[in-house]
Amino acid sequence: MLKFLVARLRQAWPQVKIIFRGDSGFCRWRLLRWCEAQQVGYIVGLAKNPRVLGLAQRFMEQAQTGFTAQQQKQRLFGEVKYRAETWDRERRVLVKAEHTDKGSNPRFVVTNLEGEAQSLYDGMYCARGEMENRIKEQQLGLFADRTSCHGWWANQFRLLLSSCAYVLLERLRTLALAGTELARAQVSTIRLKLLKIGAVVLRNTRQVRLLLSSSYPYQAIFGQVVKALDSG
Hints:
The chain is α+β, with helices and mostly antiparallel strands. It has helices at about 1-10, 30-35, 50-55, 55-70, 115-125, 130-140, 150-175, 185-195, 220-230; strands at about 20, 40-45, 75-80, 90-100, 105, 105-110, 200-205, 210.
């Protein structure tokens, strides 16, 4: 799938810089090696294990010492070179050594990107959480989690329909809801307040009329949406 997406993106934008970001479930050396061969940047979570914990021990001890002295949460960043037994070579691993009143909480990220460890971790890797919020929004608001068919292609088609619906509602937010109270609304809210409403539909050969209730509370926003989409 990554190979397909990279090829398609570069077909449309030959000079685009592509960075693959994922959690530790994607930390497989064949995937990392493919990214390196194709000049694709990557920043991927790395699960904790005794070897990488040993390499990061000095950072963890420094964080613990700082917490003991100040009784405040400590976050230190560094990097090590690490090669799992199944990997083809060593790679750069970013270390976040965190220590709180609950103890040590280290995190590790493997990357081929250049830059300071903290900047890459906070600015690039942690932004993955916002992407997961958008995935969750699609799952809960547009039924992307309904993949109960026995066949793979049927489930894939359901996901495709859900993704198309998300793109349409995202464009609706951008093009028609800017400046309104629904400008940052999630898709479930937009569906509830703008789409799942009662109306009388009158149609003839030249026009379609929607007759909304006079007590509909979002008449002004609905009118703005219709005007924006009509003019666009």
